[in-house]
Write a structure and sequence with these properties.
alpha/beta, three-stranded parallel beta sheet, about 45% helix, globular
């Protein structure tokens, strides 16, 4: 690899103004509070039944009591206790179906689909038993590098920031344009601004100072675990090979990232989850050409509406009322406003 420092390129997504972000945050808080009140007034079923055809597609990552250095601070871990509360809420109010049922048009009214990105081993340990207890299917989206024994750059960088912050920040500050970046902004900046060659360069230099620990080898599901889960109502889709922001990939790198052949028969769902939710029309076109039947989104800045797109929510509340407020009040209203104003 060329050891010359590469320049980061700006993210393709235009940043919103500080005022717009604050206004959106205040509106979300108001909508969520309203939803909690409506839930406690006993109106959950009534409101859910107002949109029986809308599929509630939920996104989780790690399910763990004590996040380790590879996941702590990423904001994507949920405790097994809270996850169980979420499942109890889904069981009371929705028809939880598999991704294949959804694709075949057999979801039925008030359907919900459960998904997990990245393929963390904690899902097998803590989430799958809770799903089995309630007879609920789910789909896990695998990263090729992780399944084949490698470390995903996000987790590697997060571990270094958690365990060796001074050394890591000194390295970060040596990259062009990052001389004054704050620690809490590093991962977001890398995911939105660094093309894959620059990420590889950063990881190569980082590995020399902060080698992986023993915990790294147990962070993600291995092939044996995946094959076991396939017998337990768990399906597997693709989440790219290296978890790069696909919008910043060259055409050659994009082809590599969308090539799932290294995972072979492990994948039994012809669906794809965009890393970080970042996608554009180019990426969507390439996935459609490869025959993917559904593509999982996260963010609101999506390509032109396509039949294959599924927008996902990341339930974060600790109580049923908070999950209801997010899924049935906050996010539907925000999506309606986004569509109306765009």
């Amino acid at each position: 690899m060329n050891t010359r420092l590469l320049q980061a390129t700006p993210d393709a997504v235009a940043p919103r103004s500080s005022f717009a972000r604050k206004a959106a945050g205040m509106l979300r808080s108001l909508l969520r509070a309203t939803g909690v009140v409506l839930y406690h007034l006993g109106l959950a079923k009534t409101i859910i039944n107002l949109s029986p055809g809308r599929v509630r597609t939920c996104l989780y990552h790690a399910v763990e009591d004590q996040p380790g250095s590879y996941t702590a601070g990423l904001g994507m871990s949920i405790s097994p206790e809270t996850f169980a509360r979420h499942l109890d809420y889904y069981q009371r109010h929705y028809n939880v179906v598999s991704m294949q049922d959804l694709i075949r048009g057999q979801a039925g009214p008030c359907a919900a689909v459960l998904t997990f990105d990245d393929g963390y081993a904690s899902v097998a340990e803590n989430a799958v038993p809770a799903l089995e207890k309630r007879g609920m299917p789910a789909t896990i989206y695998l990263i090729g590098k992780a399944v084949n024994g490698g470390m995903v750059w996000v987790n590697q960088l997060n571990h270094a920031l958690n365990r060796h912050p001074y050394m890591t920040m000194k390295l970060i500050h040596s990259f062009p344009g990052l001389a004054h970046i704050a620690r809490e902004d590093v991962i977001h900046h890398v995911q939105t601004s660094f093309p894959p060659p620059l990420i590889e360069q950063l990881m190569s230099r980082l590995e020399q100072s902060v080698p992986p620990t023993a915990a790294a080898s147990q962070l993600f599901l291995n092939r044996e675990q995946i094959n076991d889960l396939k017998t337990r109502a768990i399906a597997f889709g693709f989440h790219s090979n290296d978890h790069y922001n696909l919008r910043l990939c060259s055409e050659h790198t994009l082809r590599q990232q969308l090539d799932s052949s290294a995972l072979g028969s492990l994948l039994d769902s012809k669906t794809f989850a965009y890393p970080f939710g970042y996608c554009g029309d180019r990426e969507a076109d390439r996935l459609e050409a490869r025959g993917f039947q559904r593509t999982m989104l996260v963010q609101e800045d999506t390509p032109q509406p396509r039949k294959s797109n599924l927008k996902r929510s990341e339930p974060s509340g600790r109580s049923a009322s908070r999950v209801f407020a997010q899924l049935e009040v906050e996010e539907p209203v925000m999506q309606w406003l986004h569509a109306a104003l765009s």
